[in-house]
Amino acid sequence: MKSKEMMGLKKMRFLLEVLVPALLTGMLASMAEGRTHYYDFVLKETNFTRLCKSKSMMTVNDSFPGPVIRIHRGDLVYVNVHNQDDFGVTIHWHGVKQTRNPWSDGPDHITQCRIQPGTNFTYKVIFGEDQEGTLWWHAHSDWTRASVHGAIVILPAEGTTYPFPKPDGEHLVVIGSWFSGDLNKEFEEFFSNQTFESLLDDNAFTINGEPGDLVPCGRETTDRYLVDYGKTYLLRIVNAVVNVELFFAISEHNLTIVGTDGTYTKPKVISYIMIAPGQTMDVLITTNQSLGHYYMGARRFTTFSENVSFDNMTATAILQYRGNYTPPVVPSFPTNLPTFHDSESGLGFLPLLRSLATPEHPVNVPLNITTRMFITASINLINYTHEGTEISHLGGSLNNITFMDPSSSVLLAYYRYWYPFVYSLIFSIFILFL
Question: What is the rounded distance in angstroms from the CA atom of residue 293 to the CA atom of residue 291?
């Protein structure tokens, strides 16, 4: 090895032996304020019956949606994932900042290799100091996230409370997709013969794993939330649907938006929400209507032309008042739920969200803008040659540049920064202190 490289390695060894322990000591001291939680996730095939048909699909701990991670702000989480399925997979902690911990973020072939069948892997999940509210986790290998996902609830730090009156109760609303077959195989077939006139579509949407009673065989298992009159409840809503924006509303009840994606927002009263795939939203409802049963409804918001066919079902759950009354034959349906092509309601929703921006929940927005970038995200037909065959397929791109798998793991090179010819010694020392 060249003497220059040897000198660089000696310097890196000094940094590792002297400075890294000091940095770790400070980091561990900052984490000591919260508690540490341990979870075991077991990936395996589980049988489910929906829409009058049964199928087997990958789940965590035999549940769909998967288990809830519930912590307080400032806590630390370890999740040991045991893969008892026959498909390699990783888990991503959606929206979690993972400060100084990118190798536990989860996207396969980007931050780690897949957890192979018969093996296990332990994730260290580090939340941002300012993260509070609702996030979620999901598989990040091919399309396994359709059935492998669950909510993350971050309660206020112990000794503190919400920036709004404490609700009388809360309820998780995880909206998911239901496909009748193996989604990975369906996508492979779809992409080999795709057109713009059809979509690979969900057979149904689900609320907490159930499509509701507007579909065959759904009435007996429809999700119900029991409430008392005159109370205020917090709904933690997760859009775990595969690539679909959704409208959500509750019949005859307004929603007060108070948070999204693990941060609080200025309260906004509205009759519906539009929630993007992967997004979470915290809303308050006040149960001030006549004793009865009221549908919660979730349906697609689409900007496709009306000649493109898609699943037009509406997933339902029931907000059910406790008390002495005669139950209705059919719950009240939300007439305030926008229709599929209601662009005004869909596109007009996002500007309503504003950060809370209080001393307790500050928003530090950089005001000195030194560089401006123009980036166009798009999905186009991409043509390429594979083994002598011309192939066209849909692909995502930024400024017409699509992602190509690297020949080696860039993150691994970053993590093991003493590898020669990957990063310079100066850069390696710099990133050590980031």
Answer: 7
